[in-house]
């Protein structure tokens, strides 16, 4: 039990100092307020984290001898009361499947998954460290947006995230439906 709300349960085995083993963690109802000391106040407000909670499960395998070869899956749901604000599944494949030494995190995420339309991200974030420098790249990444009523979707997004979604200007064409797909590949700073 946590003072700010929520519960965490864990089970598994860990061999030390070999760093081998596995763990399963389940967190329910973790209040975002508990993260306030570690999150920039302006960012906390922009993301509208106050009053939200997180439910998550994680399964991690440590084959040793260092933590950078860990693999596993994280599944999380962010909510405000009964409204699911977002869902995320992130998977790090086993080290032997990574190929050239990069860590590839497979990501599937949905924003407001129970609302009409689609706000879906699916792709791979590749993390690489070489010669003391780090890089982040997108691989096979796809963002899908669909809204049967653009004005209603915009209003809902603004209602949940007023610090991120600005008020609509009078000249904004928020009428009709929207369908868009964006595919990205390459360095995070300059994807194509």
- Give Rg in angstroms: 19 Å
Our count of helices gives 2
Shape descriptor: globular
What is the string of helix and strand elements? EEHEEEEEEHE
- The poorly predicted ranges are none
Oligomer: single chain
**Helix- and strand-based class?**
mainly beta
Which key terms come to mind for this protein?
single chain, 192 residues, mainly beta, 9-stranded antiparallel β-sheet, 2 helices, 9 strands
Write the layout of secondary structure elements.
Layout (H helix, E strand, L loop, with lengths): L6 E9 L4 E12 L9 H6 L6 E11 L7 E10 L2 E10 L10 E9 L6 E13 L2 E15 L2 H11 L17 E10 L5
Antiparallel strand pairs: 1-2, 2-3, 3-4, 4-5, 5-6, 6-7, 7-8, 8-9
Description:
This protein is 9% helix and 52% strand. By secondary structure, the chain is mainly beta. It starts with 6 loop residues before the first strand and ends in a 5-residue tail after the last strand.
């Amino acid at each position: 039990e946590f003072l700010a709300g929520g519960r965490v349960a864990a089970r598994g085995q860990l061999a030390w100092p070999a760093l081998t083993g596995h763990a399963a963690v389940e967190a329910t109802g973790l209040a975002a307020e508990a993260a306030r000391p570690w999150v920039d106040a302006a960012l906390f407000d922009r993301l509208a984290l106050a009053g939200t909670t997180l439910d998550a499960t994680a399964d991690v395998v440590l084959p040793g001898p260092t933590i950078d070869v860990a693999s596993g899956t994280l599944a999380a749901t962010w909510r405000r009361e009964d409204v699911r604000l977002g869902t995320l599944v992130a998977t790090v494949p086993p080290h032997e499947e990574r190929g050239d030494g990069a860590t590839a995190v497979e990501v599937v995420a949905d924003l407001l998954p129970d609302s009409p339309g689609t706000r879906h991200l699916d792709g791979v974030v590749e993390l690489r460290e070489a010669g003391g420098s780090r890089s982040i790249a997108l691989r096979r990444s796809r963002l899908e947006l669909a809204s049967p009523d653009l004005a209603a979707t915009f209003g809902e997004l603004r209602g949940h995230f007023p610090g991120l979604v600005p008020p609509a200007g009078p000249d904004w064409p928020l009428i009709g439906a929207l369908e868009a797909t964006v595919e990205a590949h390459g360095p995070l700073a300059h994807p194509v």
